[in-house]
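Standup notes
- DV: blocked on the single-chain target, sequence here:
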Amino acid sequence: MALRVPKAELPAELSENMARQFGAVPEPVEVAWHNPKVAQASLDLSAKVAAWDAADASLKTFAHMAVAAKIGCSWCLDANYFQALNQDLDMTKASQVPRWRDCEAFTPLERDVLEYAEAMTDTPPTVTDELSARLRDRLGPAALVELTAYIAFADMGSRNNVALGVTSQGFSDACEIPLTA
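- DV (later): unblocked, structure below
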């Protein structure tokens, strides 16, 4: 798939900072920069979301990957797999998120989080009271609220990337274990 909106030229300082931080400028930012207000708001919100700390980071990363796999956002899978490597997460688990139902490696809590991420991503959402109660009991209300908002943010970004034709950028090439297709 080709980009449906070409890359815009970013201000040099922003481009250099992103290249230092990620090794390359993320294509979603280059595409969004045609409307700098939208791009900057997305970057600001992303930074705020990254600072949330009530829910476990690994659960949020796996949830984001489940959303990306469900929607078909190869860019998000690629970037989150690389993030999992940098967070020292279990890379075997990370690589299996797209097929988590068939993989024995995930804990019951991780399975519930992955199910929740997919249920939230369904249109219409298919989240059940039972699943929400299990997560609330194990995580607590604050973490469940955070996880829910995090998944909603992942959904927005994944759908945005797919609609604009943004695909994998090769961030996960540094990972030893290949990401499951």
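- Follow-up: The chain has two domains: 8-51, 54-174.
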